[in-house]
Write a structure and sequence with these properties.
It is built from 13 helices and 14 strands. The chain is of the alpha/beta class and 372 residues long. Strands 4, 5, 6, 7, 8, 11 and 12 form a seven-stranded mixed beta sheet that branches. 48% of the residues are buried. The mean pLDDT is 96.
């Protein structure tokens, strides 16, 4: 079998929202943007990776992929997944270590694992060593912009689906005292048996997080997420030491190197790595290091992909079920009885609907050839 990489192509997508756009104050109000990457081997096996940057940068990602990534991947053996990761990490180090370069590295890594699973004839969670069949999910998307009643209605939509946990937002749009009232109202509406996660999206200082968090302690929330900006590791520890509630984070950090302070001072019992910030290779490494310190993993978004990692590690916590992309896939990953299960097709098993790839394309490139 000839597994040398002969072609790399991207497809830039701009996709209208099917309903109301997320009222989170972050994402473009009119559309979603994705970069879909395909890596093809000499024998015709195609692996797919994808990126959803959430707040712009689509063409910048494509330029980095074309200039800095594709030339270093063409001609390599697609099964050299660790070797290619290391090549891309080191060759982009001066302008990378985070941001655009690592996003692009991640898309390649996802596509290469897809190829590896297809060659082995196994879904990724089995290729990596299955640990469980299903992972609990929480419903995410109780956006602060919906207002109190809207957030509660959104949460009840998730609980009617059978989910036993939801996540709501605070900070940025509303003063913290109103946020506290919203969380108390959510607890009153859902009762004592539904877990409530609260996401600050880095919107408070440590002092505000402690002040507000003491009131949130009263309603037994499951966690307080990203209470301070991601660089403020001292603030994380201050908040964690002041509250009874778990303080979690990690979605804005790139690779295990960026997460190292969480391991050196393990006051954060759950980390939330993003598969777009290091790929599947790096997420599995983060999970392995985290297990050493008794830390669990609850990935940021992209549940349809992260489910394979979570089903193959011993320290899985929750998956974040975000339903905003359910319409993009031929077979969407939707929780049943509050649980998400990995698909059993070889690789990651994800396929965009052909009409999405066709009708929503706004650009991209294709590079061909083998290195001498």
């Amino acid at each position: 079998m000839d597994t040398r990489i002969t072609a790399i192509s991207t497809n830039l997508l701009r996709i209208p929202w099917t309903g109301e756009p997320p009222a989170n104050g972050i994402m473009p109000p009119a559309h979603r943007e994705l970069l879909v990457l395909e890596v093809k081997t000499q024998d015709g096996i195609v692996g797919m990776g994808y990126l959803q940057p959430l707040a712009g940068g689509l063409e910048t990602l494509d330029a980095c992929m074309r200039e800095m990534i594709a030339p270093k991947v063409l001609g390599r053996d697609a099964l050299e997944i660790e070797g290619i990761w290391q090549t891309l990490w080191s060759s982009t180090y001066w302008v990378g270590r985070a941001g655009i370069a690592v996003f692009c590295l991640s898309a390649v890594d996802i596509a290469l694992w897809d190829i590896a699973g297809k060659i082995a004839g196994l879904p990724l969670y089995r290729l990596w060593g299955k640990c469980r069949n299903a992972i609990p999910a929480y419903g995410s998307g109780c956006w602060r912009g919906l207002g109190r009643d809207g957030m509660i209605a959104r949460a009840q939509h998730f609980t009617e689906m059978g989910l036993k946990a939801i996540k709501m937002q605070v900070a940025h749009i509303r003063p913290w005292r109103e946020d506290v009232k919203n969380v108390h109202a959510m607890r009153d509406a859902l009762g004592p048996d539904i877990e409530i996660m609260v996401d600050v999206n880095m919107g408070w200082t440590a002092d505000t997080a402690i002040q507000a968090g003491r009131y949130l302690d009263e309603v037994d929330i499951y966690w307080l997420e990203e209470p301070v900006v991601c660089e403020d590791f001292t603030g994380y520890r201050r908040v964690a030491n002041a509250l009874r509630t778990r303080v979690v984070g990690g979605e804005s950090h790139f690779t295990r190197f960026d997460l190292r302070p969480f391991f050196e001072h393990p006051s954060t019992p759950i980390l939330q790595p993003d598969p777009m910030r290091g790929g599947l290779t790096e997420m599995r490494k983060v999970a392995a290091v985290a297990e050493t310190w008794g830390i669990q993993i609850a990935p940021h978004c992209f549940h349809e992909l992260a489910v394979h990692v979570m089903a193959s590690i011993p320290n899985a916590n929750y998956l974040e079920y975000m339903d905003w992309n359910d319409d993009l896939w031929i077979n969407s990953a939707i929780p049943v009885d509050g649980m998400l299960r990995p698909r059993d097709e070889p690789g990651h098993g994800l396929q965009f609907k052909p009409e999405i790839l066709r009708d929503c394309r706004i650009g991209g490139f294709e590079a061909n050839g083998l290195r001498p």
